[in-house]
Amino acid sequence: MYRQTIPTTARAAIIALIKALQTGDITACRHLPSSTSPAYWAMWARTVMVCRACLPMLALTGEEDSRCDHCREIVPMIHLEQAGTEGLVILHGACPGCEGIPEMRTA
Ligand SMILES: [Zn+2]
Ligand SMILES: [Zn+2]
What distances in angstroms separate CA 53 from CA 17, 29, 32, 39, 48, one per listed residue? Predict the structure, then answer.
């Protein structure tokens, strides 16, 4: 079942990826071209796309690990969300205020 709408946070993450692709700023890890792993891209690490084994490369430390990718606030509890498909996983962190807000229906 396809949902009619996606959360605004997922939409923002997808748009961020499209922008990064347009500017040509993304470097893939050396495994991706021959890997069967999905490609992972994170909103907080816009310049790299990695395989599952390289996911630790995306890890953040300290305050940055608690920063919302949407409102840029640092919060005590950040929720890791995923958008994308089986082959491409788009990761983004959302604070309780931004998390999963359904997109307004226009119809
Ligand atoms: Zn890799
Ligand atoms: Zn937020």
Answer: 21, 10, 10, 10, 14
